[in-house]
Specification:
heterodimer; A: 317 residues; alpha+beta; Immunoglobulin-like; 4-stranded antiparallel beta sheet; 54% helix; B: 209 residues; mainly alpha; 2% strand
Amino acid sequence: MTKSTLIRWFICICILLGCTACKTEHRFVKRTEFKKTNIIVICFAGQVDESWANNFKSFRINELQDPDIQLKVDRVELSKDKRTLKIFMKDPLNKSNPHQVALPDIMSEGKSQGTAMVSVKKLYWGNLISILIGAMFIYNYVFVKYLGLCVYLGVTQKKSTAIGMGFTFTIVIIFSTSISWFLYQYILKPYQIEFLQIIVFIGLVSLTVQAVDTILRKVNPILFKEFGVYLVLIISSCLILAVPLIMAAQNYDFFESLMLSSGAGLGFFIALFLMSCVRERIDLAPIPESYRGMPIAFIVSGLFALSFMGFSGMSIF
Amino acid sequence: MIENNKSYSNIFLNGILNENPIFRLALSMCPAVGISTNVMNGLLMGIAVLFVQFCSSLTISLVKNFIHPRIRIPTYTLTIATWVTVTDLVLAAFFPVAYKSLGIFVRLIVVFCFITMRLDVFARKNPVFPSLVDAVGMGFGFMLGMMAIGGVRELMGMGTLLGYDILGFRPLLFFVLPCSGFFVVGFMMAIFNYTEIIYNRRKRARSVA
């Protein structure tokens, strides 16, 4: 019973998200997408003329944020059924930003279909997953962005504390970022008081931590006994404030910010776990006296950071 | 209340030497690792932190009698957040280049633990002028730490200091890499520990003799 309800909900959400993914702004343009590193593919509802397609000098392609910088087209390729147009760009595209393509006077079988302004975005699901993986590994907040180091160095003495902290942190950051998203989109932005975001977000974080503390104490005292100590520490972590700020700066929608926060939390969890494993062994190793404690911890994190550099430049979807 | 045997110069030096936020307390390491690629960044970050620490110490020591002890931590956080917002907007308006190179770390001054710690440990209990001296000392300690790390990284990585060519060649390009911040901080801490160990050993030897 519950399972079938769950599946029904899941399908509904899929359809909803699917609909948001494939809408375009012009009736004659059916679908737009990125391919490889420098190709934009545009599917038309009908056949377009080859002479029009070859006149690609009149196409205007730019990133949505800065319309002044026009990107250069190398060549175009029309498929055999004359419904799909491949635009090859001179330089690789920055696929994380949506692009805008202006197609003047689309000619289809001799008739003009009007000028189309369409936007090209990454696939919605692919985008979500790439945000998640990106926040976890490629831009790992501890080893690549160097945030949250105080807590990271403070709680990684033992494996059990590291796991407890990682778990609590992931939950708190998901909660607080979701609430920050609502507050940012529905209060700060409409009233144009975005400059207050630092005060609002830090206040919100401390409120969330306090709320989780109170709720956990009443609902599940055993869990509270295990994780309660870490809750206070969380406020002093840079990461908990950095994620809402990045969310606001990138103007993410709700699911994107959810993915960003869970990716950041899980990435932090991974960092804590790796580091605590190493530090438990370091305690037994013969280390020069002057390196004991903090210095060796820093050097080990440096080695981790070097290895995490291997993820850089990776792009998924 | 301030004790008589603690002069202002002692309070000032306390922040730079005994309780240096970076090397002794190991608090707020994120900027020390993240943006210390050159001296200029360290200087700018230090000035921003100095300003925030100065203003919030001033505010808290002025209104300390009106703050209920149970809500003191949220009060500190909000005070710091206000001053950080001011710094953020001023930097963005007047020094856009510097603002860009510091990135998100200007806004993250809010969560630097040592600012809150100084407010709780010092500004809450002392009159205005000593708290200001303490704030300036702490800020300078942070700034000097950041500049030292930045100096080592810039000199070793690029062979320059503050943009001026010093060595004429690039000794170790490794130090330009973002992750080398960890190594530099680790090695510098180890050097400080080593000097302390040697110093204590000499002192002990002298006292025995």
